[in-house]
Design a protein that fits this description.
Number of strands of chain B: 2
Largest interface: A-B, 21 and 26 residues
Radius of gyration of chain A: 17 Å
Number of strands of chain A: 3
Strand content of chain B: under 5%
Strand order of the largest sheet of chain B: 1-2
Helix content of chain A: 40-55%
Shape of chain B: rod-shaped
Oligomer: heterodimer
Distance between the termini of chain A: 41 Å
Number of helices of chain A: 4
């Protein structure tokens, strides 16, 4: 089963990436793995979505990147959160919370009944 | 890196992108090997998994935002290559363009100078004819004689310039056709008159 894009809308993917990076500088592959593990396989981001998203975030100065050596000795591009990125993360998280609460409320309406 | 920088540095960005994706591939391969796969198989699987590195690169290039300019540049270079391959066609096309542009420019220059530029305003409201009066023949207006013209020109203060007009086809001269006056002072007078107007 091959997907061209992940099921997440673009804004949500950005939010998740920012959150992962907020936990500490990390390279692209690790981000994808982390998302997969923590979401228990629900969120699987293909490279075709992940790297463009990372680069877009970098262009917007929400992430900063530099090349460092990993434990295996190879060099990888590590991303870290900028101050601007931190602020963006907080705003977007808040928006997400609000949105999901609202959606839950609506979904809990039973048929034929008022809220 | 802002948009402009991304445009100039795209070669550097391309190499970086390549490195980044290569790293991802290697890590994924290692992971699969750690899970027990045969190295060759792991490599193959890793390469297939995301849907092809070239596709990923394309999408990353789109994210850069400089795509349209890069594509335009590539198309121009391709066009130039094709032209080089067909020198005959190129020559004809260039000559046609040159002819068209040249002719157009020439015609427009003329039209511009003749029709479109504002005509220098000549304030003819301030021009007057000076006549002599000949009571003998009962003619109130007769053209001035040259010596009189000279006198008037030297002695009067009221006129900024004075020019002698020699009438053409005036029967009094007898020869039937007049000649343009060739007095030196006339020429100067005419110049003075017109240059004042143009100011």
């Amino acid at each position: 089963m091959r997907q061209e894009k992940s099921d997440l809308p673009q804004g949500t993917l950005d939010l998740l990436i920012l959150k992962i990076v907020a936990l500490g500088p990390v390279h692209g592959y690790a981000i994808a793995q982390r998302l997969d593990q923590v979401s228990r396989g629900v969120v699987q981001v293909p490279q075709g979505s992940l790297y463009p998203a990372l680069h877009r975030l970098e262009n917007r100065d929400l992430l900063a990147a530099d090349w460092q050596a990993t434990e295996t000795g190879r060099e990888a591009k590590f991303y870290r959160l900028t101050k601007k990125g931190q602020a963006q993360l907080e705003t977007e998280s808040e928006k997400w919370e609000r949105l999901t609460k609202a959606v839950s409320l609506i979904l809990r309406l039973s048929e034929g009944g008022a809220s | 890196m802002n948009w402009l920088n991304r445009l100039w540095r795209r070669h550097k960005l391309e190499t970086e992108l390549d490195r980044e994706l290569r790293f991802h591939l290697d890590e994924h391969t290692d992971n699969l090997i750690a899970q027990g796969l045969d190295p060759q198989e792991a490599r193959r699987r890793a390469r297939l998994a995301p849907g092809g590195p070239e596709q990923v690169k394309e999408q990353c290039r789109d994210a850069r935002g400089t795509r349209w300019l890069e594509d335009l540049w590539q198309d121009l270079r391709f066009g130039a290559r094709m032209l080089r391959k067909n020198p005959g066609f190129t020559l004809v096309a260039v000559l046609t363009l040159a002819l068209g542009i040249g002719a157009n420019t020439a015609i427009f220059s003329i039209v511009n100078a003749v029709l479109l530029q504002p005509y220098p305003q000549i304030d003819t409201d301030r021009w007057v004819y000076l006549w002599e009066r000949q009571d003998v023949g009962g003619m109130p207006q007769v053209s001035a004689s040259v010596p009189n013209y000279r006198d008037w020109r030297q002695q009067s203060q009221s006129f900024s310039a004075m020019v002698l007009w020699m009438p053409w086809n005036f029967n009094l001269s007898g020869s039937g056709v007049g000649e343009p006056t060739e007095l030196e002072e006339n020429r100067q007078g005419l110049e003075a008159l017109l240059s004042q107007q143009a100011a």
